[in-house]
Amino acid sequence: MMKPLVGISCCRKQFGSFGSPNHAASDTYVRAVDRIVGAVPVLIPANGEAADIPSLLSRLDGIILTGSRSNVRPEYYEGPPHAEGTPEDEARDAVTLPLIRGAIAAGVPLLAICRGLQELNVALGGSLHQRLQDLPGHFDHSTPMQPSARMRTAKAHAVRLVPGGFVHRLAGTSEIAVNSLHNQGIDVLAPGLAAEGTAPDGTIEAVRVIGASAFAYGVQWHPEYDFETDRLSRRIFAAFGEAVCERVAGTRLPAAAD
Question: DSSP assignment of 164-223, as one string?
Answer without folding.
Answer: TSHHHHHHTSSEEEE----S-EESSPPTTEEEEEE-TTS-EEEEEETT-SS-EEEESS-G
